[in-house]
Amino acid sequence: MAEMAASGESPEILFWVGCAGSFDDRYKAVTQAFVKILNKVGVSFAVLGPEEACTGDPARRAGNEFLFQMQAVANIQVMNGYNVKKVVTACPHCFNTIKNEYPALGGEYEVIHHSQFLQQLINEGKVALKGGGEFKGKKITFHDSCYLGRANDVYEAPREVIKALDVELVEMKRCRTKGLCCGAGGAQMFKEPEEGKKDINIERTEEALSTGASAIAVGCPFCLTMMSDGVKNKEREHDVKVYDLAEMIAKDMGI
Amino acid sequence: MSILPQLIFLLVFAVAGYILYKRVSYLRRNIFLGHKEDRNDMKEQRWKTMVLVALGQKKMFKRLGPAFLHLLIYVAFIVINLEVLEFIIDGLSGQHRIFAPFLGGVYAVAMNIFEFLAIAVLVSCFAFLIRRNIMKVDRLAMKELKGWPALDANLILIIEIVLMFAILTMNATDQILAERGVDKYLAVEGLFFSGLIQPLFQGMSEGALIFLERFAWWFHIVGILAFAIYVTYSKHLHIFLAFPNTWYSNLQPKGEMKNMSEVTNEVNMMLGIQTETSNDPPAEIGRFGAKDVNDLSWVNIMNAYSCTECGRCTAECPANITGKKLSPRKIMMDVRDRAEEVGKSIDSGGPGLEDGKSLLGDYTTKEEINACTSCNACVEACPVNIDPLSIILQMRRYVAMEESGSPAQWNAMFQNMETSFSPWKFAPTDRFNWADQLKNEEAK
To answer: Taking every annotated instance into account, which residue ranges of this chain make up the domain Cysteine-rich (chain A) (predicted)?
Structure first.
C-alpha cells in the first residue's frame, strides 16, 4: 500500500490479509491463492503488509475492550491515512469487525468477504472456470462460519462459489442458520477448551464426514484449522481434504 | 334477588387488580435495575419484528411438532379470553350469557370454537406433560431445571388443563339446566364438545347441577385471575413479555459487539490522537463490563424475565452439546434469579445489591462464560429474540478489565497483541513474508 500511495496510485481494493493469512502456514496458502486470482483477473489491489495489525477481534471477545480499541483505532488511522474505501478479506472475523465495529470508532469502509468477492468475479465472468477441473462431480460439503453466517447473514455467496465448480454440494444437517460452530470463535482459538465430553471440532468433523463428502470447504482461517485437526483426529486426512474457497477456485483455474 | 354475587365478583376483581398492579410495579422496578439502553430507533422494523416473531410465532416453526401444539394453546389463550369479556359483564350485571340473545346463531358457532380450542389446549397440555415427564426430551430435562423450574412448568400445564375442564363442565351442566327449562339458563344449539360429557351429569338433581355450573363458572374466572397473578412469579411471563421483548430486539448484525465509548477517549489519548472532546463531564463510569445485574442493561434483564426456559438455545449451543458447563438458558435463569433476589431484598429493607453477592461468582461461573464461542446459535434459536451472548460477553469484559482474571492463555494472547499486534507471537515485520514465495514463483 505504502508503495502505491507513494507513486500516487489508489488501488480499487485493500486486501486485508489478517493474522492467520500472514502467519499461519496453512492459511498463507489461502492468501497466496487469493492473490493469484486477483492478479490473474487483474484487480487493482494493495495490502498493508507490516502496517496491518490484528483487528482486535479475539481481544474484544475475550473481554479486553481496551486492547481491542488500541488495535482498532491504530488500524483505522492507517486505513484512513491511505483513504481506503473498499476492503476485502478472507477472514470472517476481520470481516465482521471492520464492517460492523470499526464505524463506531471512525472507520467507515465498504467491507466484503472473499466469498462474496469471488462470487462477483464469477458472475461477472472475470473468473473463467473450466468446470471440468479436479472437483467436477465430487461431493463437497460447506461448513458455515459463524461470523459469516449468523453474525452477518452471508449464507449463499460461498455456496454459489462452490456450485460454480460443477460439484455436488451436500449439506450437513446443521447448516446455514443452524450451522454448528467449529469451536474456535469468541477467542477459543487461543486457549484450550473447558472440560467437557468432547471437543467441538470433533463433533462438527464427524457431522461433515457423515455426508460422505470428499472435501470440506470453509471460508475462515479458524474453521480451516479446526476442521483440518478434526479430520486428522479421525485419521481421514488421506481421503478427505479441507479447503478454503479461494484455493478451490485457484486450483480450478490452474494457477 | 341478592346482589351479593355481584359484590363478591367486584371485590375479587378489585383485589386481583391490586395484586397485579403491585406485581407489575415490582417487575418493572427489577427490570430497571439495569442501566439505560436506547432502543427506540427504526420503529417500523421494530413493529415488524414484533408482529412476525411474537404475534406470528415465526421462530417457533423451526421445530414443527412443538410449534403446532404451542400455536393451539396460543390461539386458544387469545380467543377464549374473548369469552372472559362476557364473563365479566355477566358477573357485574348478574346476567347470564348476556351476548347470546344478540348474536343468535353466531353465538353458538363462537361457543363451539371456544370448546374446540379448549379440547385443543387439553390435548396440547397433555402432550407437553408427556414430553416433559415421560419422554424426558433432552432440553426439558436438564439439570438447571431441577426443583422449582420443573415444578413451575408442570403447574402451568396442570392449571391450564383444569381451567379447560371447568369451561367444558360449565357448558355441559348449563345446557342440561337449559333443557330442563330452569330459569335464566338459555339453550345454545349444538354445543358439540361439552355435549360429549353431558351424560356424566344427566342423572344429577337440579340443585347439584346449578351448584356445579356456578362452581365451574366461578372457578374459571377466579382461576384466570389467579393464573394472571401466578404468571408474574413464573417463567410463563413470556405470554406478555414476548411482545416488548421482540420490539426491543437487537436489530444490528448479530456479530457486532457494542462499543465501549468510555474507553475510546483514553485510547485516543494513548495513541496521541486529537479528538473533539466535549465539555460535558465524562459519564460516570461504574464498572467495566458486568459483575452484577445492575451492570447489565434493562433489555438484558427484560430478556431474563421473558425467558420461558424452553432450552432451544442450550440445545443449539456447541459448548453445551459437547459437555461443557455453559448453558445459555441457565445464564438467563441466573440473571432472573439474581434480579429477584435483589428486588426482594430491597422491598424488605435489606441491602439489595450490596448483599455481598453478585451475578458473576454466586450464580454464573467463569468456567461457564469462558466456554462460549460467541457463535450466536443461542441468539438465533430463541423464539422471542433473547440475547444470552450479550450478557456472557459483558461478564467477560468485567473479568478481563476489572479483575485481569482471564484464562492464562488469553492473557498470553493479549500480551502478544500488545507487543507484536497479532494474537500469535510473530514479528510484525514478518507479516509480508507470504509474498516472498509468490515472488519467487513468478521469478521462475
So the answer is: 14-99, 140-227
**Global ipTM:** 0.96
pLDDT at A255 (0 to 100): 86
Chain A interface mutation, best of B375, B387, B413, B436, highest count of A Cβ atoms under 10 Å: B375
Percent helix, strand and coil across chain A, each rounded to 5? 50, 10, 40
Distant-in-sequence, close-in-space partners of B82: CB < 8 Å, separation ≥ 6: B110
* Domain identity same for A166 and A83: no
One domain, residues B184 and B333: no
pLDDT band at A132 (very low <50, low <70, confident <90, very high): low
Tell me the per-residue pLDDT of B255-293, one tens digit each, with 9 for 90 and over.
999 999 989 988 998 888 876 655 555 556 679 999 999
Residue B268 with chain A: CB contacts under 8 Å: 73
Query: Which residue segment(s) compose the domain that B198 sits in?
Result: 4-31+63-247
Q: Of the candidates A32, A105, A181, which has its C-beta nearest B375's C-beta?
A: A181
B293 with B191, same domain: the answer is: no
Q: How distant is the Cα of B327 from the closest Cα of chain A, in angstroms?
A: 13
Count of the separate structural domains present in chain A = 2
Cα B352 to Cα B343: distance, rounded to the nearest angstrom: 7
User: What number of CA atoms fall less than 13 Å from residue B357's CA on the CB side?
Assistant: 18
Residue of chain A nearest B425, judged by CA positions: A23
> What residues of chain A lie within 8 A of the CB of B385, using their CB?
none
Predicted confidence at residue B274, as pLDDT, reads 76
pLDDT of residue B294: 97
> Does A236 lie in the same domain as A163?
yes
d(CA B222, CA B163): 10
Rounded CA gap, A179 and B303, in Å? 24
Q: Name the residue of chain A whose CA is nearest to B254's CA.
A: A151
Residue B209 sits in the same domain as residue B337: no
Provide the number of structural domains found in chain B. 2
Q: Report A:68-97 residues touching B (Cβ under 8 A).
A: 69-71, 73-74, 77, 96
